[in-house]
């Protein structure tokens, strides 16, 4: 059902954790399944992503897609990271079962949410970036029930 790459990133997820004083932090949640993903970006003065970490409270596909998403954004500029779609994440993982496509969407939205936070903190506008609908503001997730 799952590709070897998905199983690898699920069993051995890359870049799990937090970044203290991150340039941008984004948290997104899927209203239907209740899974939550948080992405931390460390961005240097020239707009290049130097580090990326994540925490995912969710299904295996959500863990694998967020792990792959961190690998894809690392070293990219903000503009390049914005172009990383859930399709690109899925392709990098050699595909996902149709029922799990929404999990990869969460990874794309987590990147966008962290970029949105970075832009807000720096009073800038990133061309083409909109705030993800699944964005969870700070504190809101604390009111959610545990899954
Ligand atoms: Fe919802 Fe995977 S089942 S993110």
Automatic annotation (TrEMBL):
Chain ranges of the NIF system FeS cluster assembly NifU N-terminal domain: 1-123
Pfam families (alphabetical): NifU_N
Domain of life assignment: Bacteria
GO terms under biological process: iron-sulfur cluster assembly
GO MF term set: iron ion binding; iron-sulfur cluster binding
Membrane-spanning parts: none
CDD domains: IscU_like (cd06664)
Classification via SUPFAM superfamilies: SufE/NifU (SSF82649)
InterPro entries named in the record: NIF_FeS_clus_asmbl_NifU-like, NIF_FeS_clus_asmbl_NifU_N
Record NCBIfam families: NifU_clost
Protein name: Nitrogen fixation NifU-like protein
Organism this protein belongs to: Mobilisporobacter senegalensis
